[in-house]
TrEMBL record:
InterPro entries from the UniProt entry: HTH_MarR-typ (IPR000835), MarR/SlyA-like (IPR039422), WH-like_DNA-bd_sf (IPR036388), WH_DNA-bd_sf (IPR036390)
Lineage: Bacteria, Bacillati, Actinomycetota, Actinomycetes, Streptosporangiales
Domain of life: Bacteria
Residues in HTH marR-type domain copies: 16-148
SUPFAM superfamilies: Winged helix' DNA-binding domain
Protein name: MarR family winged helix-turn-helix transcriptional regulator
Length: 181
């Protein structure tokens, strides 16, 4: 806990100024809330990210989307199957390259995204509450710049493997799928 100076202002201690610790605390706070808010979607957070990409009409097929999100291609296939079964997305031939399939949001998917996005904005506001609105906007922009640069320097092509590396005992076994699906 930070010390308090004579003026009553907080004086941060060494831990409070450690980048890894501060990022971890903010990340955990956001993830706990966000995971609850996207749990109704197939695939939870990953499903939400796919839905965002589909709503935004991001270019590229499902392979490019898997790479961008750091999801193994086979996991992406199952995730898209589940999102399609829920009526949230469709795979359509890419007009630029008919060998590829584009992931497109359905009307139901757009409605689910709008509802979920609204609830996530409230969660973000809660996490960023100590910042005034201008600082929130600046924080988001600076974080976006850092994330884009970090991803371009060292993209994570398989977040499943990353999770296993971070906590191999906390990873549930992969579900088995039958050939009949």
């Amino acid at each position: 806990m930070p010390a308090t100076s004579r003026s009553g202002a907080e004086t941060p201690d060494a831990l409070d100024t450690d980048l890894g610790w501060t990022l971890g605390v903010v990340f955990r706070s956001y993830v706990r809330t966000a995971n609850t808010l996207v749990s109704h979607l197939p695939g939870g957070p990953r499903g939400y990210q796919v839905l965002v990409a589909a709503v935004e009409g991001l270019p590229g097929g499902q392979g490019a989307l898997a790479q961008r999100l750091g999801v193994d291609k086979t996991v992406m296939t199952y995730l898209l199957d589940d999102l399609e079964k829920a009526g949230l997305v469709e795979r359509r031939p890419d007009p630029a390259d008919r060998r590829n399939k584009r992931v497109v949001a359905t009307e139901r998917g757009r409605a689910a995204w709008t509802d979920t996005q609204s609830r996530l904005e409230h969660a973000e506001d809660h996490v960023l509450a100590p910042l005034d609105p201008a600082d929130r906007s600046l924080f988001r922009e600076l974080l976006r710049k850092l994330a884009v640069r970090a991803n371009s320097l060292d993209p994570e092509h398989n977040t499943c493997r990353l999770v296993e590396e971070l906590d191999p005992e906390g990873v549930p076994p992969k579900p088995r799928r039958s050939a009949r699906g």
